[in-house]
Design goal:
Number of strands: 16
Shape: globular
Bound molecules: NADPH dihydro-nicotinamide-adenine-dinucleotide phosphate
Protein name: Quinone oxidoreductase family protein
CATH superfamily of the largest domain: Medium-chain alcohol dehydrogenases, catalytic domain
InterPro entries: ADH-like_C, ADH-like_N, ER, GroES-like_sf, NAD(P)-bd_dom_sf, QOR-like
Distance between the termini: 21 Å
Strand content: 25-35%
Radius of gyration: 20 Å
Helix content: 25-40%
Keywords: NADP, Oxidoreductase
CATH architecture of the largest domain: Alpha-Beta Complex
Order of helices and strands: EEEHEEEEEHEHEHEHEHEHEHEHE
Organism: Lacibacterium aquatile
Structural class: alpha/beta
Length: about 325
């Protein structure tokens, strides 16, 4: 039977005020789907891009890319899952800002016993992103010196710890002294404050003039210049986000002038496009957490209905680590 649940929906692009706490109808699961009751929802920067219109989405829409919860009903043809089971998902489709939702079973992952629903909702998106960035986009090797921006954000705190576990030397950037302290505690060997000035010059200093074989940049517009000037010859520039705004267009010739660089603009969906890739990616994330090498850090919790405030805090750089919304 269709049921009515609380959700946060937008009907137009705009500021946090367009996030509306509304009642939406959730039907019975169709073939291949489950009905999921969320127990925890992850907050991610992508929802700010989708709300503002930087990323176009079809309206109206219930935002939210990441959640964890319990299966309440199962549609025809679903195998391998049962009612009452704890599952999570990330990065497949919007709709997580809701008490309940329908979701394709083949895009779910089972949450191991040792991992709470909150932790799953906090790390699945950022953690699977970290995994593909460090293990596939550029394969980080022991001894590599790596520049990672926004080092104590949701993705950042997972990435700095994971980089250390891989034997890398981590240069992290942050905006405040407090964040710098947290970055150090989580494995950053060198922490640079943007306010300290020329990031690329400092990276060159640390690397004996060579630059780094890879830069991971999710800040975008504001750090592009420093990033591209920090990459070593034939190194890789990984631009994976736009927290400060989108990077303007560039000429391919620039990559030659800066040292025959590789430039990629990856997104999680393309690294977990098959169910097999999704399961392998999540399994590696859960295993690195189980090993204790990456310790999830939930910096903030908000009630789902207060997601506007949560987004304001994320966009104004007040948060650290992962943020969880409680339905
Ligand atoms: P974060 O928790 O990392 O928050 C963003 C951080 O970016 C801030 O805390 C801030 O850290 C830094 N920042 C620098 N400049 C600005 C600015 N002008 N406005 C706001 N923040 C700024 O967010 P998430 O962990 O959710 O995401 C991190 C990034 O990774 C985002 O850009 C996101 O889009 C991207 N991403 C990309 C994916 C992909 O597959 N391509 C998947 C997942 C995330 P500080 O104050 O220290 O500078």
């Amino acid at each position: 039977m269709p049921q009515t649940v609380n959700a946060v929906r937008i009907h137009e692009h705009g500021g946090p005020e367009v996030l509306r706490w509304e009642q939406v109808e959730v039907g019975d699961p169709g073939p291949g789907e489950v009905l999921l009751r969320h127990t925890a929802i992850g907050l991610n920067f992508i929802e700010i891009y989708q709300r503002s219109g930087l990323y176009k989405v079809q309206l109206p829409i219930v935002l939210g890319q990441e959640g964890a919860g319990v299966i309440e009903a199962i549609g025809a043809g679903v195998t391998g899952y049962k009612v009452g089971e704890r599952v999570g998902y990330a990065g497949y489709s919007a709709g997580a800002y809701s008490e309940k939702r329908l979701f394709p079973a083949e895009r779910l992952v089972k949450i191991p016993d040792a991992i709470s629903d909150e932790v799953a909702a906090a790390v699945l998106l950022g953690g699977m992103t970290t995994r593909y960035l460090l293990r596939e986009t550029y394969v980080v090797k022991p001894g590599d010196t790596v520049l990672f921006h926004a080092a104590v954000g949701g993705v950042g705190l997972i990435a700095t710890q994971w980089l250390k576990a891989l034997g890398a030397i981590v240069i992290g950037t942050v905006s405040t002294k407090e964040k710098a302290e947290l970055a150090k505690q989580n494995g950053c060997d060198h922490v640079l404050l943007y306010s300290d000035g020329d990031i690329a010059a400092k990276v060159r200093e640390i690397t004996g003039g060579k630059g780094v074989p890879v830069v991971y940049d999710s800040v975008g517009k504001d750090t592009w210049e420093a990033s591209i000037n920090s990459v070593a010859q034939r190194g890789m520039m990984v631009s994976f986000g736009n927290a400060s705004g989108a990077v303007p267009a560039i000429e391919p010739l620039l990559l030659s002038q800066k040292g025959s660089l590789f430039l990629t603009r990856p997104t999680l969906g393309h690294y977990v496009s098959t169910p097999e890739a999704l399961q392998a990616n999540a399994a590696e994330l859960f295993s690195v957490i189980a090993s204790g090498k990456v310790k999830p850090h939930i910096g903030q919790r908000y009630a789902l209905k207060d997601v506007a405030q949560a987004q304001i805090d994320l966009a104004s750089r007040k948060t650290v680590g992962s943020t969880v919304l409680i339905p």
